[in-house]
Specification:
0% strand; 78 residues; 81% helix; mainly alpha; 2 helices; single chain
């Protein structure tokens, strides 16, 4: 029974992490859009920054997916 509780807790932590990533991306994209509107960034700089943020978000989500699936199997060559 405690093993089931651990799995559910791990699932909730994973989902919280995914939610945090999504919220961070949305907030940062909004900030970039505001800077473009104010003229502090050019449109091209804003597009480049949004692309970089999206790439980093996907990399971070990939890291979380790997963590959620547990340690990867490796061979020792013995």
């Amino acid at each position: 029974m405690s093993n089931l509780d651990f799995g559910e807790g791990l699932r909730k932590v994973f989902l919280a992490g995914v939610g945090a990533l999504a919220t961070t991306y949305e907030k940062s994209q909004s900030l970039v859009d505001d800077l473009v509107k104010k003229g502090e960034l050019t449109v091209e700089q804003g597009k480049a920054l949004n692309t970089e943020l999206k790439r980093r978000t996907h990399e971070g989500k990939g890291d979380q997916d790997a963590d959620a699936n547990g340690p990867s199997e490796t061979t020792t060559g013995e």
